[in-house]
Amino acid sequence: MSEKEKIKIVAQNKKARHDYFVEESYEAGIELKGTEVKSIRLGNVNLKESYAQVRNGEIYVLGMHISPYKQAFQADSDPARPKRLLLHKREIRKIAAAVQQKGYTLIPLKVYLKHGLIKVELGVCIGKRLHDKRDAISRRDAKRAIDRAIKSNNKVSGDF
After folding, report:
1. Residue 53 CB contacts under 8 Å (≥ 6 apart), including other chains
2. Global pTM?
Protein backbone atom coordinates (compact mmCIF):
# COMPACT_ATOMS: atom_id res chain seq x y z
CA MET A 1 0.00 0.00 0.00
CA SER A 2 1.43 3.40 -0.95
CA GLU A 3 1.40 6.55 1.19
CA LYS A 4 -1.46 8.11 -0.81
CA GLU A 5 -3.77 5.14 -0.23
CA LYS A 6 -3.43 5.43 3.56
CA ILE A 7 -4.65 9.06 3.68
CA LYS A 8 -8.37 9.85 3.62
CA ILE A 9 -9.24 13.55 3.45
CA VAL A 10 -12.19 14.31 5.74
CA ALA A 11 -12.50 18.09 5.25
CA GLN A 12 -10.71 20.81 3.30
CA ASN A 13 -10.65 24.57 3.64
CA LYS A 14 -10.87 25.44 -0.07
CA LYS A 15 -11.42 29.12 0.66
CA ALA A 16 -8.03 29.32 2.41
CA ARG A 17 -6.03 28.77 -0.79
CA HIS A 18 -8.20 31.39 -2.50
CA ASP A 19 -7.73 34.01 0.23
CA TYR A 20 -4.14 33.30 1.31
CA PHE A 21 -0.68 32.45 -0.02
CA VAL A 22 0.49 29.36 1.89
CA GLU A 23 4.16 29.87 2.81
CA GLU A 24 4.70 26.67 4.85
CA SER A 25 2.54 23.80 5.97
CA TYR A 26 2.81 21.51 8.98
CA GLU A 27 1.15 18.23 9.93
CA ALA A 28 -0.22 18.20 13.46
CA GLY A 29 -2.18 15.81 15.60
CA ILE A 30 -5.25 17.12 17.37
CA GLU A 31 -6.50 16.57 20.91
CA LEU A 32 -10.13 15.40 20.76
CA LYS A 33 -12.81 13.74 22.85
CA GLY A 34 -14.12 10.28 21.88
CA THR A 35 -17.39 11.49 20.41
CA GLU A 36 -15.55 14.14 18.36
CA VAL A 37 -13.36 11.43 16.84
CA LYS A 38 -16.42 9.44 15.78
CA SER A 39 -18.04 12.55 14.34
CA ILE A 40 -14.91 13.48 12.34
CA ARG A 41 -14.66 9.95 10.96
CA LEU A 42 -18.21 10.45 9.62
CA GLY A 43 -17.10 13.74 8.00
CA ASN A 44 -19.04 16.09 10.30
CA VAL A 45 -16.38 18.80 10.53
CA ASN A 46 -16.31 22.33 9.11
CA LEU A 47 -13.10 24.38 8.64
CA LYS A 48 -14.69 27.36 6.90
CA GLU A 49 -14.08 30.13 9.47
CA SER A 50 -11.36 28.41 11.49
CA TYR A 51 -7.91 29.72 12.38
CA ALA A 52 -5.15 28.86 14.84
CA GLN A 53 -3.37 30.80 17.59
CA VAL A 54 -0.26 30.32 19.68
CA ARG A 55 -1.11 30.54 23.40
CA ASN A 56 1.36 29.85 26.22
CA GLY A 57 3.64 27.74 24.03
CA GLU A 58 0.77 25.68 22.60
CA ILE A 59 -1.23 26.00 19.39
CA TYR A 60 -5.03 25.95 19.45
CA VAL A 61 -7.51 25.76 16.57
CA LEU A 62 -10.44 28.13 17.01
CA GLY A 63 -13.65 28.11 15.02
CA MET A 64 -13.38 24.50 13.84
CA HIS A 65 -16.92 23.18 14.12
CA ILE A 66 -17.32 19.47 14.85
CA SER A 67 -20.99 18.48 14.84
CA PRO A 68 -22.08 16.41 17.84
CA TYR A 69 -22.15 12.66 17.34
CA LYS A 70 -25.81 11.68 17.07
CA GLN A 71 -25.62 8.34 18.91
CA ALA A 72 -23.72 9.80 21.87
CA PHE A 73 -25.44 10.13 25.23
CA GLN A 74 -23.26 13.10 26.16
CA ALA A 75 -24.98 16.23 24.81
CA ASP A 76 -22.97 18.88 26.69
CA SER A 77 -19.93 19.03 24.37
CA ASP A 78 -19.33 22.38 22.69
CA PRO A 79 -18.95 21.88 18.90
CA ALA A 80 -16.76 24.99 18.50
CA ARG A 81 -14.50 24.60 21.55
CA PRO A 82 -10.77 25.41 21.08
CA LYS A 83 -8.83 22.26 20.21
CA ARG A 84 -5.15 21.85 21.05
CA LEU A 85 -2.80 20.81 18.26
CA LEU A 86 0.00 18.35 18.97
CA LEU A 87 3.35 19.52 17.59
CA HIS A 88 6.98 19.33 18.68
CA LYS A 89 8.25 22.29 20.72
CA ARG A 90 10.74 23.32 18.02
CA GLU A 91 7.93 23.39 15.44
CA ILE A 92 5.78 25.50 17.76
CA ARG A 93 8.65 27.95 18.29
CA LYS A 94 9.24 28.18 14.52
CA ILE A 95 5.53 28.75 13.83
CA ALA A 96 5.28 31.35 16.63
CA ALA A 97 8.25 33.26 15.16
CA ALA A 98 6.64 33.20 11.70
CA VAL A 99 3.27 34.42 13.00
CA GLN A 100 4.95 37.30 14.88
CA GLN A 101 5.76 38.85 11.49
CA LYS A 102 3.21 41.32 10.21
CA GLY A 103 0.49 39.87 7.97
CA TYR A 104 1.07 36.17 8.74
CA THR A 105 -1.60 33.92 10.21
CA LEU A 106 -2.20 30.23 10.92
CA ILE A 107 -4.97 28.54 8.96
CA PRO A 108 -6.03 24.86 9.13
CA LEU A 109 -6.01 23.72 5.50
CA LYS A 110 -7.43 20.20 5.83
CA VAL A 111 -8.35 17.45 8.26
CA TYR A 112 -7.52 13.90 7.25
CA LEU A 113 -7.05 10.36 8.52
CA LYS A 114 -3.52 9.00 8.28
CA HIS A 115 -2.95 5.41 9.44
CA GLY A 116 -6.16 5.66 11.49
CA LEU A 117 -5.11 8.88 13.28
CA ILE A 118 -6.76 12.27 12.76
CA LYS A 119 -4.32 14.89 11.50
CA VAL A 120 -4.63 18.58 10.65
CA GLU A 121 -2.58 20.30 7.95
CA LEU A 122 -1.74 23.74 9.31
CA GLY A 123 -0.55 26.49 6.98
CA VAL A 124 1.49 29.61 7.77
CA CYS A 125 -0.24 32.02 5.40
CA ILE A 126 -0.18 35.62 4.26
CA GLY A 127 -3.34 37.26 2.93
CA LYS A 128 -3.89 37.90 -0.77
CA ARG A 129 -4.87 41.28 -2.07
CA LEU A 130 -7.80 41.67 -4.47
CA HIS A 131 -5.55 42.01 -7.54
CA ASP A 132 -3.74 38.76 -6.57
CA LYS A 133 -7.09 36.94 -6.55
CA ARG A 134 -7.99 38.40 -9.94
CA ASP A 135 -4.65 37.27 -11.39
CA ALA A 136 -5.20 33.73 -10.09
CA ILE A 137 -8.71 33.63 -11.58
CA SER A 138 -7.51 34.90 -14.97
CA ARG A 139 -4.64 32.35 -15.04
CA ARG A 140 -7.07 29.54 -14.17
CA ASP A 141 -9.50 30.64 -16.92
CA ALA A 142 -6.69 30.87 -19.48
CA LYS A 143 -5.49 27.37 -18.57
CA ARG A 144 -9.03 26.01 -18.98
CA ALA A 145 -9.34 27.64 -22.40
CA ILE A 146 -6.00 26.18 -23.52
CA ASP A 147 -6.96 22.71 -22.26
CA ARG A 148 -10.33 22.95 -24.05
CA ALA A 149 -8.63 23.96 -27.31
CA ILE A 150 -6.12 21.12 -27.08
CA LYS A 151 -8.86 18.61 -26.32
CA SER A 152 -11.03 19.75 -29.25
CA ASN A 153 -7.98 19.74 -31.55
CA ASN A 154 -7.16 16.16 -30.55
CA LYS A 155 -10.76 15.06 -31.28
CA VAL A 156 -10.64 16.59 -34.79
CA SER A 157 -7.26 15.05 -35.67
CA GLY A 158 -8.31 11.64 -34.28
CA ASP A 159 -11.17 11.29 -36.80
CA PHE A 160 -8.89 10.67 -39.79
Report:
1. 59, 60, 62, 106
2. 0.75
